[in-house]
Amino acid sequence: MSASFALFGVLVAPVLQALFVLALQKPPGLRDVVHIGFALATAICAARLVGAAADGETVRIALAQPLPNVALAFVVEPLGALVAATIGGLGFLHAAHSAGVVRATQEKAPARLMAFMALASGATMAVAFSANLFTFFVAYQALTLCVFPLVAHRGDEEARRAGRTFLATLLTASMGLFLPAMIWTYAIAGALDFQPGGVLAGRVDALTANILLVLFVLGLAMAAMPPLHRWLPASSRAPDPALVTIQGVAILPAGGVGLIKIAAFVFGPALATARFAAYGLILLAGVGMCVAALIALSRQDVRERLAYSCIAQSLAVAVGALVALPMGLFAAALQIVAFACSAATLTMAVGTTGAITARRTVADYAGLGRVMPWTFAGFALASASMIGMPPFSGAWAKLWLITAAAGAGLVWAAALVGAAAVLTFAHLAPLAANTLAGKAPTDAFKRPDGASILLAAPVILSAAATLWLLVLADPLSSFLAPIWSDGQ
Predict the structure, then answer these.
(1) Alpha-carbon gap, residue 413 to 416, rounded angstroms
(2) Are the C-beta atoms of residues 359 and 368 closer than 8 Å to each other?
(3) Are 393 and 488 within 8 A, CB to CB?
(4) Residue environment code for 286-300, b if the CB has 16+ CB neighbours within 10 A, otherwise e
(5) Fewer CB within 10 Å, N or C, the chain?
(6) Which H or E element spans position 396?
(7) Quick one: pLDDT at residue 383?
C-alpha cells in the first residue's frame, strides 16, 4: 500500500463506513461486520502512515486552493501520524465495543449512532493530518457537527440541552476567537501552512503575539480550557459509545493536537514573544486541572466523574504545549496518546458496566470487579495510567511534563501538575480499588449472560495499550523530533 493511498484511506474509509452502516442496517450482524471492518481498514492505513513519517516520505493531498498560498490540503508528519495511529487502533476496539453495547442496551437508531461515530473518526483524522490552519479549521468544524448528533442522540430534553451547550460552545469559540486569529495570521504572514519553526516566527511584535495566542488557545474549545469546558460535563449523559468518541478517540485528542500544532507550527520561537499570555494560560490550565480533579471527587455518577477527570487530563496537554521547548511538546504528545488510551478504556468499561448491570454510581460499583474481573482489571489499569502511576503510559507523560515545566523555570506549573495527579488519585484510585476489594454483589447482572466478548475484550486490549510507552518513549522522541528540530 502506498503512503498516498493510505492517507486517502484514513480520510475516506470512515465516510464509506458511515454510508454502508446506514445502507445495511439489517440484519444487525451485517451492519456490525461492516462497522468493525471499516474501522480496521482505517487503523491499518493509519499504521502505514506511521512508517511513512518515520521514513521521511513526503505525502500530501491537496483538494482545493480557495486563497493564494492557502490550500485545503492534508500532509503526513510525525505528530499527525502518531495521533492517527493511536486513534485508529482505539477506534477499531471502540467499533467492536459499540456493536456489543447497542445490542445489550437496545439503543434506539444504532445505525445512526455508528454512522456519526465513523464520521467523527474521519474528521479527527482530517484534524491530525491538516496541512495548514485553514484545513484544520474546516476539519474542526466538521468534527463539531459530526459529534453534535451523538450528544443529542437520545432526543429527550436533557440530551437536547446538552447538544445545544456542546454546539454553542464549540462553534462560538471557533468562529468568534479562532477564525479571527487565523485571518490575522494570514494578514501577517501571507500563508497559513503548518511548518516547523512557526509561520509567525520573526513576524510579530509582543502585543500581537500575546493577543493571537489567547485567541487561538481559547478558540480551541475542544481542549476544554476554562471557562469553555462546560460542554464536556454537559455531554456526560450521552449514549455510552458516544462518550468514548467524545472523551477518548475524537474530541479531546483533536483539541490536544490543535494546541501542539499552534504552539510548534504557528508560533514556534514566537511563543517566547507571547510569554505573558503563555504564562497566564499555563496558570489557567494548571489551576483548571486541580479544580476539575477536585470536582470529580464530588461527583457520584461515574460518567460525570470521568468527564471532569478527562478535563484535567486534557489541560495537561495544554500545559505541555504552552511550555513548548522540545520537552514540553514531547510531553504534550505523550499525554495525548496516554490519555486517549486511558480515557477510551475507562469509558468503554463504564459502557460495559451500564449495559450489563445498569449501575452508574460510585456506590453501586463496589465489588463489581469480583463478578466482572476482565472489565474491571482493565478499569484498574486505565485508572493507574490516568493517575500517572509507573509503569503505565500516563506516568511517563506526566514525568516529562513536570520536567519540562521545571526546566523552563516554571516550578509552580510543575507543582500544579503534581497536585492534579494527587487529586486524580483521590477520585480514581479508591473507586478502582473498591470494585476489586468490595463484597461481590449478588444482584449484579440484569442480563443473565453477563458481558459478551464484544464488551469485555476491547476494554482489556485498550487497557494493555497503557503499557506501551514504557518501551517506546525513547524511539518516539526521535520520531517526533521534526516537530521542534527547525527552530525550537
Answers:
(1) 5
(2) yes
(3) no
(4) bebbbbbbbbbbebe
(5) N
(6) helix 393-407
(7) 93
